[in-house]
Amino acid sequence: MTQLIPEQSPLAGVLPGRGPRRVTTLTVGGLLAVILLIAALCAPWLAPFDPNIQHIDIRLLPPSSAHWLGTDGFGRDLLSRVIYGARPTLLLVSLILILTIPFGLLIGISAGYLGGWYERVLMRFTDIVLSLPSLVIALALVAILGPGLMNGALALAFTSWPSFARQARAETLALRRSDYLAAARMQGIGGLRLMFGHILPLCLPSAVVRAALSLGGIILSSAGLGFLGMGIQPPTAEWGSMVAEGSKVIFDQWWVAAAPGGAILFASLAFNLIGDGLRDKMDTRNGN
Question: What sequence ranges are listed for the domain ABC transmembrane type-1 (predicted)?
Answer without folding.
Answer: 86-275
